[in-house]
User: Fold this.
Amino acid sequence: MNQKSTGKAALWLLLIPYIGLLWVPFYNFREPELFGFPFFYWYQLLWVPITAALIWVAYRSTRDGE
Amino acid sequence: MGSDINVTALSVFIFFFVLVTIMGFVAARWRKPETLAHIDEWGLGGRSFGTWITWFLVGGDFYTAYTVIAVPALVYTVGAYGFFALPYTIIVYPFVFMVMPVLWKRAKEFGYVTAADVVHGQYGSRGLELAVAATGVIATMPYIALQLVGMTAVLKALGLHGELPLAIAFIVLALYTYSAGLRAPALIAFVKDIMIYIVVIAAVALIPSKLGGYANVFNAADAAFQAKGSGSLLLASNQYVAYATLALGSALAAFMYPHTLTGIFASNSGNTIRKNAVLLPAYTLLLGLLALLGYMGHAAHLQLDSANDVVPALFKTLFSSWFAGFSFAAIAIGALVPAAVMSIGAANLFTRNFWKAYVDPAVSPAGEAKVAKITSLIVKIGALLVILFLPTQFALDLQLLGGIWILQTLPALVFGLYTGWFRAPGLLAGWFVGFFGGTYLVWDAGWKPLHAVTIGGASFTVYTGLLALAANIVVAAVLSAALAKSTRPQTQQ
Assistant:
């Protein structure tokens, strides 16, 4: 029971990338730059590993389900 | 043909092309099944692909050669706006993680091969099945044609002009797909993806140092956009909604296509798909870096006839000739994998949801495999003829519409996995409104997939596919509610 509810909770994590990436005013800036990349670019690239990590957490918590 | 051919580049190119051709034919014997004369074997590789094969296959199939050419070309032309491909190919994975294992399970349980099979099994409606199948086929055809556009761009850079090289490459592809089925692109995808990774890593590591570093690359692009008065490094405020809705709409549409679904159905478990949702974003990182080649094109001051030449021209200018040949081979092979899977996906749809449904309901699995093989040949030759005889713009416009069309199959395919509340007539009417309404809006906007919407005095530019999907869902829900009131639901199957 407890196991199952943590599993469900982890799935909410999957909504985070949608918020981080679909709300453009969060990141449509030039500064701060990183390695010459304007913020707009490195911010979105950074969401690739973040999203993979969030899905991994969700995966860890659901795989016993099936 | 003639003087602009570089012998080293061409030899390297031909070496790799011959290598994958041999692999394509050998693939019929790879992980050999009892028989290939069964649609599950020919069309889905026996539903046996584990995590790594699925990763290479879906990666090789979703991130196509056309993407490698077109995304940097768009970024080269318009700047930040062309980057929507990055959020699109990130947010697609939480969706894949949640939905695709459920879909896989349904298909596995009942032996379904296509999306339209799933829909027919759920609702028992031949009409809805046909709508989903026909949408899949016509959305895929221009997509195959665009792989040829990607291949043409690299052949041109190699100095191979005219139609013959393209036709030869495609006919070879058609033949080994015919004999080995999905095993051919699955095996070739290993080579293709590793080559593309090498090329992109080399490009993002080496090219900026030749162009004075990333800061200089971005500054050069900024200067070029200001000089020509269009495009920019950041989004204009009226592009925010368009950018976000294009990303979301494309992400929802991506795994409705027959070729991506074929990769899903071919995997060996729901867990394989979940693991892939974790691992596939590696390709997105690659795509994001690749998109920057568009800006490097500005920094290298390339003179181009067409924006689609930016990647080949950059490689040709900045790489040594053998590595340029290697890169071009990677892109050309990158066209073969998705084109093969797309034609297999379309052929499966035709066989299962048209041939079996209307022509020969008693067809055996071996008979299905035979029909699918022949259909895959016809589909590829059709795409080749489109590219040879119709203007490229025609394929581009159709591909754009294809994204909007395929998105309209989402309610019929996905909602039924979670609820039995929707009714077939409602979903069919929703599909009809979304499909034709969306097409009308795109035509009305002069073949642009964006539509201006005014809410409370503020005007937004929204991706038409998402608007059409909203209309689709509303119609489906209203009609289903009306039908539920007038008739008691029949026993669930």
Observations:
- The radius of gyration of chain A is 15 Å.
